[in-house]
User: Fold PrpF protein from Desulfofundulus kuznetsovii.
Amino acid sequence: MREYEKIRCAIIRGGTSKGVFLLENDLPRDPETRDRVILAIFGSPDPRQINGLGGADSLTSKVAIIGRSSRPDADVDYTFGQVSITAPLVDYKGNCGNISSAVGPFAIDEGLVKAVEPVTTVRIFNTNTGKIIAAEVPVKDGRAVTEGDLAIDGVPGTGARITLNFLDSGGAVTGKLLPTGNLKDEITLSDGTRLTVSLVDAANPAVFFKAADLGLTGVELPDAINSNPQLLARIEEIRSIAAEMMGLAHRLEATAKSPAVPKIVFVSPPCAYRTSDGRVIEAGQIDLVARTMSMQKMHKAFAVTGGICTSTAAKLEGTVVSEVLGPSARRGKVVRLGHPSGTLEFEIEITRDAGGNPRLEKAAVARTARRIMDGFVYVPRRIFWPEV
Assistant:
């Protein structure tokens, strides 16, 4: 009897993240067995992920599960999983916008969607959020185009432009654009600190606070935050309190049960700062400065779904994010975020329903993606059948 089963897979960069892409039909149907297989594919839990395909970084420890959709409004179903590096956990609570940008090209190249030149629109049903993402993918000779002239901060070189429109993405996880019904809420930390936050759910739920309210400048780079365990603990406490307020998890269980959702973002007004690679971002290039966390560490760039939520919060007058937003973004639809690796731009349209409640009509962003390899990953048979 052979010791291993082999599973088709591809490693693909999507935006500033990298993931292992798997076909739904190639995985076990039982959720527990499926997750054991995925953890084995990544080599988790292990800080180095030395025995699998994970890259020992939360931005490269991501899985995308793709299959044909039976829905009339979608071409493919896509499930995102954040694979923990330190615990035997695959978190499916929310989506990853960067990985989403690679789903369209993958679906085209795998023959799940018919290629139409020069641009194929792939309608993606994200099972995590129950929302549709429309991806406009450039195509030539029946394949997704990789080469192009779009540069995105945090990724070397350039690539073909993939435009993502997250359709009706308000209330993606909680069912409400404003989960508590408020533009701002007050919370109290265990040390007695009172903090004003905004809880918004667009593409993914997130909690926002002003950097200055926690004694931060807002332009900190990852090393400055990640080397401060006391600060990391306070930021995670804020996120855990927000998780409970959103009904996602009890605050004492939030880190273990859903370390990736809700996201947490601290914001500050537009100002000049240096990126991680030493470039200067001028105040006039951005509409606000934002920093977000990924699995309890500062994100080296910025999550796309987190960026959609941040930009949406910025356009909702009365949130803590709107209070730091630059004047040009108040007038138009485009919001430009300044993050540790550079800038990220979103087009946001918010309307009001008959009752005057805000509705997120459009949230669009441009990304690039590149298939790095494909083949088979070998998983020990004992992972599938532990009793054998």
